[in-house]
Amino acid sequence: MTNIFSPMMLGDIALANRIVMAPMTRDRAGPGDVPTATMAEYYRQRAGAGLIVSEGTQPSRVGKGYWRTPGIHSDEQVAAWRTIADAVHGEGGRMVIQIMHVGRAAVQANKDADAETVAPSAIRCPDKIPGPDGEPVETVMPRALETGEIAGIIAEYAAAARNARTAGMDGVELHCASGYLPMQFLSSNTNQRTDGYGGSLENRIRFVVETLRAMADAIGPGRVGFRICPGVKFNGVDDADPHETYAALLKAVDDLGLAYCHLMHIPLPGQDALDLVRENWRGAIIENGGLKLQTAKAVLTEGKADAVSFGNLFIGNPDLVERFRAGAPLIRADRANYYTGHGNDQVGYTDYPPLDA
Ligand SMILES: Cc1cc2nc3c(=O)[nH]c(=O)nc-3n(C[C@H](O)[C@H](O)[C@H](O)COP(=O)(O)O)c2cc1C
Predict the structure, then answer these.
(1) Four-point Cα dihedral 80, 82, 88, 91, nearest 10
(2) In degrees, to the nearest 5, what angle opens at C-alpha 261 toward C-alphas 256 and 265?
(3) What gap in Å lies between CA 94 and CA 49, rounded to an integer?
């Protein structure tokens, strides 16, 4: 029987417990998309998690689409991530950076004026995305990537993985969910390409397979995880047959020796995504989505996943693991401050006290 508080290995990463902090964009990076000291304090406070997955972090200026998300492509960014890695490691925690290239899910005002927006096909994301003041804005019409450019995008992901290790991070997670660039390649409605990266099922999964392979080659497969949400239509992705797509993807990357598959599990009619992952993937699984302590324990004791992740609960409860251990009450975080606070980055971010305060 797997105890939620028991240590484990996720690939090459040694976790003190099986409780993972899910990736959460909080829109608080500084000028130049450089992580701040406030972010270091936020992550340090949450280092009791067996593993922290950072907020979505762009591998290039082009890959940015939201307001004040951090990057992992400049020397200054890498140096700042190092202070975060040191802060988390100082508390005995482990941390990976989630690499997020948004593709077409981008608002121009959120990124550099000269940074273009690219996608598998020139089809605009129909969903509006919050701009600098938090109000929803039309997304940019993307330019379809030339076949010859794709190797360069994959190389940026590999460089981001190397940068994460240079910063002292324990690894990286490929953000392959929520309708961002990798999922735009996977989904039949956003990928209308006629080259080797579109059309057939094998071609639609190629970008993700090659990206994961490149990241694994860069830093070792045991330090690379990936996140999926089969069938979810966030940011306008709508795959004709998610079951077929993700079964093929999981089988194709099954023998790469990757650290884990992180499932953002949103219940959808006619398909249980956790069953889908378990049937097609032999590596470690992190289950996520609306879990409470009891339901998370059940997932582990039933052997359906190896670890569990929590998003919302980690916002208001920095010492969530201690609270779970103690059976202590949980704080419900104020959603108004989920993204950039009202003029003050600390509010609703680093000001949730631990149990013993
Ligand atoms: C404020 C906020 C920001 C999020 N940002 C990201 C992100 O950057 N990358 C990602 O993969 N998921 C992101 N998510 C989704 C969470 O990782 C998680 O899947 C979701 O909150 C469901 O888990 P929960 O029910 O434990 O909160 C975000 C969720 C929240 C609440």
Answers:
(1) -120
(2) 155
(3) 8
The residue whose CA has the least distance to atom 3 of ligand 1 is 24
Cβ of 177 below 6 Å from ligand 1: yes
- Give the separation between CA 190 and CA 184, rounded to whole angstroms: 5
The residue whose CA is least distant from atom 18 of ligand 1 is: 311
Distance of CA 199 to the CA centre of its chain: 26
Give me the torsion for CA of 95, 348, 59, 100, rounded to 10°.
90
- Predicted confidence (pLDDT) at residue 171 exceeds the cutoff of 90: yes
Dihedral of CA 124/113/25/210: which sign? positive
Name the band, by pLDDT with cuts 50, 70 and 90, for residue 269.
confident
Please enumerate in sequence order all residues whose Cβ is within 8 A of that of 313, keeping only pairs 6 or more positions apart, or say none. 320, 330
pLDDT in tens, 74-113: 999 999 999 999 999 999 999 999 999 999 999 999 999 9
Distance (Å) from CA 179 to ligand 1 centroid: 13
Confidence category of residue 341, pLDDT binned at 50, 70, 90: low
Residue with tokens 């959808």: 268
CA 3 to chain centre: 25
* Cβ-Cβ contacts under 8 Å for 45 (sequence gap 6 or more): 318, 319, 350, 352, 354
* pTM of model > 0.90: yes
